[in-house]
């Protein structure tokens, strides 16, 4: 490696450093456990890296032998033999280098696969509270930047440390054997090479950090403004000129940093190239003087000059090895932080499937409080200095009710009464603090996650869809469904005509979060997905809360299909949707304050009657009132 290339390497390694956290033996032990499946490749990789280093030192020695053979007028066969040997070493070095690179890629990419799948699988087991607190970009960064940073420990740092250490020892030993005087004088120039590299590297690291900060800010601004809801908000309330000026200011700062970085790098490389030339001049001058006095062979002078670059390069690289190691450890630590977050929901080792047949839903003296931030999150993932200390207050206080098989139980009440919390406990998005939630008489904590997913179907108020085709969104619960079943589900959801009219039909992409569809169409598509899943229990969490009257009527027709013959728990903001429920529960502050049918609760003149009359008087004021004697849409 030339001195110029060494300088670039030193700069790169210093700039890649993230911080100087102390060495952690616990982290090292976990790294070893992750690397254990690749241990055979790692051992072979270390051996091949050592072989490459040895071959690199052999070439300068043979070049010196060639010079000596020419000066001593040795037979041409000797020169040709040495040249052939140099060529053979070059071929062997190239082949070994290719093999080393292949092993490095396999180890590194294999480690990326292991880490990414481990983090992805672990995150999927985290509770919903984790996702409500965590910034998605910060979490994705752990799966990308930090995993790749950890991978460099094996594909880059390990190779660099091993090969450079072997090269340094061999080169230093050979140079000392040839001329200890020249070797020591050459080492005197080393500080002129290493110290500027480290100082300039730290300066460039600060500039790179500032540039990365501005780039991240621009990326965040673009991500938020270019999404469908963000673009709408900007068009309605934003200040395009000011936002453009803010973006341009950051972009100009990135440009200025890029220019300064390029010039600093050029000055630095030019200076170190000069140091390289001075070092070579020293070797040729002092070595030539020794050679003329007869105390050193001419070939040894040439060998010393060639070995000089192989001495400075590993010394400079090893000087920055600690930075590389610390950078890799930081990356591993950030990945392990996510893996150390314990999922609150775990399947029991002896879990069983939900019993066959009709399914009842039962809450038996259930108490629940949402987990605190310390239980489910990290300050670094929320991008805050300290975690929110709030949380842990009980929101459900001894709830007990039963939804008989095939019956509908409706939950009504003020906002924050605990209705959606009840809906989240049934599919085991959370577990109660005490009490029991049962399906078909079995505690949900004793049931397998797979059977729970097959038994339960849920429609929420936002009607979330992935940025994918209608077909892919429908097939989420049943990947084996055929087109006939898809169209039947769409027909029952009153959406077949719309999908058939689309240019690509089932293969139409719905856009991010389904924004290419109206609110009512998104809801009906989620209902079609539920119908395709054929669950035995349906949970509706304010599925019509944000729809206009026309969309609500269409969705209500689809819901009638979804609820028919199934056990259902319905949370409704609009009381008109729950009048036909077999049992209505009125929740206030996490307690059931009333229960009964629609007519019974109206006759009782309690909280339900107040909610009902208040809502319908408001509807009458806005011209949206309905006859409370009309049959329910569900």
Strand order within the widest sheet? Answer: 6-7-8-3-9-10
- Strand-residue fraction? 5-15%
How many strands, what sense, and barrel or not for the largest sheet?
6 strands, mixed
| Fourth CATH level, the homologous superfamily of the largest domain | ABC transporter type 1, transmembrane domain
CATH topology of the largest domain: ABC transporter transmembrane region fold
Number of DSSP helices?
23
**How does the overall form come out from the CA principal axes?**
elongated
> How many individual domains?
2
**What class would the helix/strand composition place it in?**
alpha/beta
CATH class of the largest domain: Mainly Alpha
Would you tell me the overall average pLDDT? 78
Mind explaining what this structure looks like?
This protein is an alpha/beta fold and 634 residues long. It has helices at 3-15, 25-35, 39-71, 76-124, 128-133, 136-178, 180-188, 190-226, 228-237, 240-292, 298-319, 321-339, 373-376, 379-382, 419-425, 449-455, 470-474, 483-492, 496-501, 519-533, 549-563, 598-604, 607-621; strands spanning 361-369, 394-403, 408-413, 434-439, 442-443, 456-460, 537-541, 567-571, 583-588, 591-596. The model is unreliable at 13-23 and 620-634 (pLDDT under 50). It has two domains: 3-339, ABC transporter type 1, transmembrane domain (ABC transporter transmembrane region fold, Up-down Bundle); 361-382 and 398-462 and 535-621, Rossmann fold, CATH 3.40.50.300. The radius of gyration is 35 Å and the shape is elongated. Helix 21 links the parallel strand 7 and strand 8.
